[in-house]
Design goal:
twelve-stranded antiparallel β-barrel; 11% helix; mainly beta; Porin; two-stranded antiparallel sheet
């Protein structure tokens, strides 16, 4: 796919200039985890109509570079989801940065066009994500690279965390004035342990249906997988 090709190309750029010996000596860390959540909450919206979601991920990292895959039981419209990502990030003196490319893949979904024959189609979308942070504050911007769905939109988040508590404001906008993609949401989270977390999410500004305007309560539990 074109989007995945871009991600692979970016990974190639990250390793350009390293000799075979240097690559062999580079330490590669592998991490993985599994999680279950009472709801598939994504950008303030419930994608699973209230059903629980099971997910897992695996990441390879070396220095500041990383690549991996995240998979979930999916949402009610698009089915199972596989996200492929590659990026680079770092931190110094309380300042952090991260740039990544993320591709969403839904093998069983079509292109979401009305009355379209979606059999055998794959819907995917890629985003370039740039994030910066300082102390407990963070800002992220998601820029659409390409996709079979709407690729003329923007999404950004402002966040702040202190200890086990965190707050996130997400702003979704659609340059084509699609009201379904123009809204603001607020998420408040509490990490009871490293594994157990609680989130309250509310869409505070939007032209959405009553279901999406409801306050959402999510309980999630995750565990690392030893490899």
């Amino acid at each position: 796919m074109k989007k995945l090709t871009k991600a692979i190309a970016l990974a190639g750029v990250m390793t350009t200039g390293l000799t075979g010996a240097q690559l062999a000596q580079a330490e590669v860390d592998v991490s993985a985890s599994a999680a279950v959540a009472s709801m598939y909450l994504w950008r303030g919206l419930d994608l699973g109509n209230g059903d629980a979601a099971v997910s897992g991920d695996i990441t390879l990292s070396s220095g500041g570079a990383y690549a991996g895959m995240w998979t979930s039981s999916g949402d009610s419209a698009a089915g199972n989801e596989y996200d492929l990502y590659v990026g680079y990030g770092g931190e110094m003196e309380g300042f952090s940065y991260d740039v990544s490319v993320l591709t969403y893949v839904y093998p069983s979904a079509g292109n979401f066009e009305e009355d379209a024959d979606t059999s055998g189609n794959t819907f995917d979308l890629s985003e370039l994500i740039a994030s910066v942070g300082y102390m407990g504050a963070s800002f992220s911007y998601y820029y659409p690279l390409a996709g079979d769905g709407n690729d003329d939109y923007s999404y950004m988040t402002l966040g702040y965390g202190m200890g086990a508590y965190s707050a996130t404001v997400g702003i979704s906008d659609d340059n084509e004035d699609n009201e379904d993609n123009i809204y603001t949401h607020v998420d408040l989270s509490y990490a009871y342990t490293d594994s157990l977390a609680f989130t309250v999410s509310k869409v505070v500004s939007a032209e959405l249906d009553e279901t999406e305007d409801d306050t959402k309560f999510v309980v999630s539990y995750s565990l690392p997988i030893d490899l």
